[in-house]
Amino acid sequence: MSSFQPAANPSIAPAQAERVPGRAHVLVIGNEKGGSGKSTTALHIAVSLMRDGASVATLDLDARQATLGRYIENRVAYARRKGLDLPVPTHAAVTASTLPDRVEAEADEQARFEAALEPPLLSADFVLIDTPGSDTHLSRLAHMWADTLLTPLNDSFIDLDLLARVDPDTLKVVRPSVYAEAVWKQRQVRAVQGGRPVDWVVMRNRLSSLAARNKRDMGTVLEALAKRIGFRTTTGLSERVIYRELFLNGLTLLDLTRGGSGPSLTLSHVAARQEVRDLVASLNLPPPVPAAPPAAPATQEAIAEQQAAG
Ligand SMILES: Nc1ncnc2c1ncn2[C@@H]1O[C@H](COP(=O)(O)OP(=O)(O)OP(=O)(O)O)[C@@H](O)[C@H]1O
Ligand SMILES: [Mg+2]
């Protein structure tokens, strides 16, 4: 029997998170369920933060699929083709170990993960880590580094099944399931290691524009589950074809301009862009570290003192 006894998370923090001095804030985008919108959300958040003046690094732990890396490559190529100055995050990927022995492979992955994380951790304002839609050792490592964990969830009971078993008749949460259990364990390890509590945020993705029963029921179950396993829910993203179209040019909704090159900005895109901005605001991330002011010009007095001193 599982020893999993989740308690309400005391760390749920609607207040703005504080930055550890000299260290980037780590935002992990995680959900073991494939195709929930992790990579799409990751690039949208990265671009939103960069447009607000933050320095952002991205780390892709799904190097086999490499969706985020491909998204960023497409972005660089598009900017070059069109002569545009698009903000691009510093990107790195960590591949799974090929060592046959599991213990050695995990040590190898830990070393490579930490080597990839350390430079941006010391130099960027934010490190965004995109994880694969499956349970891997690299993904578990990343979850332990999360200051904020964002879980995009397709608005479907199939996707919710990785967070909790739900009674089909009463819609009551029967018990938390695999992903919730994994996050709980990673929180425990982090607490033992003296790390700060993680702010776990679940966002609904691909929300229907119709007030369908599924949408309402998902909302009810998620709110009950949030209290039980310790996350907070936030504003979600609607189902929109544009998310699929933007990938080939590496663009996000935040890059679209009226009359500019590329996909033109419609009213629906303006609404979608607001959803992304609302999502980023709701994460309550710490503000970027202000750039150091340029060295003050020497005053006449200081120059005279220096001259007098010879
Ligand atoms: N809000 C949305 N509306 C419409 N399509 C979306 C939305 N969000 C994501 N998608 C589409 O859903 C698919 C999966 O998205 P994405 O690759 O970002 O998910 P993922 O969680 O990173 O997947 P994986 O687990 O395989 O890494 C893509 O085709 C993407 O364009
Ligand atoms: Mg992905």
Helix and strand element order: EHEHEHEHEHEEHEHEHHH
User: Regarding quaternary structure, how should these chains be classified?
Assistant: single chain
Compute the average pLDDT. 88
Q: How are the strands ordered across the major sheet?
A: 3-2-4-1-5-8-9
Number of strands: 9
Walk me through the topology.
Blueprint: E1 25-29, H1 38-51, E2 56-60, H2 67-82, E3 90-93, H3 102-123, E4 126-130, H4 137-145, E5 148-154, H5 157-160, E6 164-166, E7 173-176, H6 178-192, E8 199-205, H7 213-229, E9 232-234, H8 242-246, H9 267-282, H10 300-308
Parallel strand pairs: 1-4, 1-5, 2-3, 2-4, 5-8, 8-9
Antiparallel strand pairs: 6-7
The structure holds adenosine-5'-triphosphate and magnesium ion.
Adenosine-5'-triphosphate (ATP) binds next to helix 1 and helix 8.
Q: Keyphrases for this structure?
A:
binds adenosine-5'-triphosphate; seven-stranded parallel sheet; binds magnesium ion; alpha/beta; 310 residues; Rossmann fold
Descriptive report:
The protein has 310 residues and is an alpha/beta fold. It has a single domain (25-308), classed as 3-Layer(aba) Sandwich (Rossmann fold). It is 41% helix and 14% strand. It has 10 helices and 9 strands. The strands form 2 sheets. Strands 3-2-4-1-5-8-9 form a 7-stranded parallel β-sheet, sandwiched between helices. Strands 6-7 form a two-stranded antiparallel ribbon. Strand 6 (164-166) and strand 7 form a beta hairpin. The chain is globular and about 85 Å long. The relative contact order is 0.18. The site of adenosine-5'-triphosphate has 19 residues, from helix 1 and helix 8.
